Amino acid sequence: MSAIKTDNLVKRYSEVTAVDGVSLEIPEGEVFGLLGPNGAGKTTLISMLATLVKPTSGTALVAGFDINKESLKVRHNIGIVFQEPSVDDLLTARENLYLHSMLYGMPRREINPKIDAMLALVKLGDRADSYVKTFSGGMRRRLEIARGLIHAPRILFLDEPTLGLDPASRKAVWAHIRELKEAHKTTIILTTHYMEEADSLADRIGIIHHGRIIELDTPEALKKKVGQDLVFLTGKIDEKAISALPFVGSVELESSRYKISITDPARNLQALLNAAGRIEEVEVRRVTLDDVFLKFAGQQISEDSGNSGIFERIATVKSTRK
Amino acid sequence: MPSRLLDLMNLNAIYALLLREAKIFFREKERIISILISPLLFLFVMGRGMGSGTSPVEGYTYQQFIFPGILAMVILFTSITYGLYIIWDKRLDFLKEVLAAPISRTTLFIGKSLGGMLGAIIETLILLIIGAFFILPLMSAGQVALCLAVSFPVSYMITNIGLTIGARMKSMEGFGLVMSFLTWPLFFFSGALFDLATAAPYIKIISLFDPVTYAVDIMRVIMLGRGAFTVWADLAAIAAFCLATTILGVTSFGKLQQEK
Questions:
Q1: Test the A interface: residue of B10, B20, B28 with most A CBs within 10 Å
Q2: How many other C-beta atoms can be found within 10 angstroms of the C-beta atom of residue B84?
Q3: What is the distance, to the nearest Å, from the Cα of residue B107 to the centroid of all Cα atoms in its chain?
Q4: What gap in Å lies between CA B104 and CA B107, rounded to an integer?
Q5: Of A204, A298, B14, B246, which cross-links B111 as Cys (Cβ 3.0–4.6 Å)?
Q6: What is d(CA A57, CA A73) in angstroms, rounded to the nearest whole number?
Q7: DSSP run (H or E) holding A279
Q8: Which residues of B touch A52 (CB under 8 A)?
Q9: How far is A147 from chain B (nearest CA, A)?
């Protein structure tokens, strides 16, 4: 059974169509990355799947239940970590988790041990009884993540889970997401506009743009669609020797340096360098999801793409015209 | 179907929601005090300032006459303000957590209503104690208990009105409008400060549609032994308002969606 199956989901607000006919299927146990700039429809799509927003048309099955007709059953099976922290400032960390556990109908005697375990996991054990209003942004987010996980949902929605986190906390959250997938077979739907995050976590990535899924594939396959990885070499290069290598595609001389297209540079770079001769400089340029996004959406994705200034937008238009 | 009823009224969840409101209520002690300020001003400044010779009820001073009305005022202000606070919850996203939880909107609504009642009842109790010492020293424990009992359905219906408006309103700017166009008129037309029996006809007519009228009246019957209606008429009106506001509130909560 698939964890999520949507059928032509549409959400129209008075002026904008936020989600414009999304049909997708996510198998159980998959980490699905939803990638797109701000305003692309990521949060609206997730909100519909989490039964927080009613679709204008279309429907979806989440954990086997219809989001329009069986919203309570859907909500029993999912966990959500919101983009904007929604933990209660006036309560302590423990109280937040306690109330959440009660709302999700967890047996009373299981609640307290579970709270301790979750707080330890997100490294807030020593702040369990502090008011949330004294927490930093990163701590709130970690608490929010603990809250989304405490009732052991089958499907977890993470809306920009690492937005505004410092690098160390971000790595910790990533590690935890991987563990959830491996140990608990939790299906995870993750929205992000960090390429790196989607690349390292997701089994498959859906690129969402103007409310439509415009590409959907594994990160590797998406990158392959865009092109091959490139290696630039300067120095006394033995062009014939490298052209003969099985993993090398084209070799071009481009203003005193050689531009070599290559498959799987992680594994083949050493062999290439051995064959190349005397090298002065090496530059490896791997295809990134940024390139993927640029190609399919005709637009750069970046942290400020949703609210970038007029000059940046002009620059983007210019660069895509080239 | 019993399981369907359990879905609608999840007692554990109601307890959880009430627990949250109770904790927050007792942590914000400034709110408990500040909400009592205007009723106390009415009671001790206007009540005394208007003079004791003008009391519409024989044997009681004007201050004693308006005391039941001021009790209703405390319930009115506490409950409406509490209900409107969910706009704030919406903006700060606390509401999102409960909207996403596997509880029905009816459960959420009842939990919130009970939370509002809790605050209003505690305020009523404080004012009743002040009144028993300074205003109506002859009031019996039985009268105090009856007034407190009446404050349950009264605060319930008024919290419902606040929650219904709060659920439909989008911005906090509407807060002041509701206070000017709803709360104060509800208070002034209720007969809290004058005798409805001798009031101008248009006031009489409007007051019939004001739920607070019946709250003031029943409190006045309990404390002073005299009111504009009978106890049973008051109770029937309060029950009708409780029912109507429950339906309105549950409907509005059913339509609540996450706003971006």
A1: B20
A2: 23
A3: 20
A4: 5
A5: B14
A6: 20
A7: strand A277-285
A8: 96, 99-100, 257-258
A9: 10
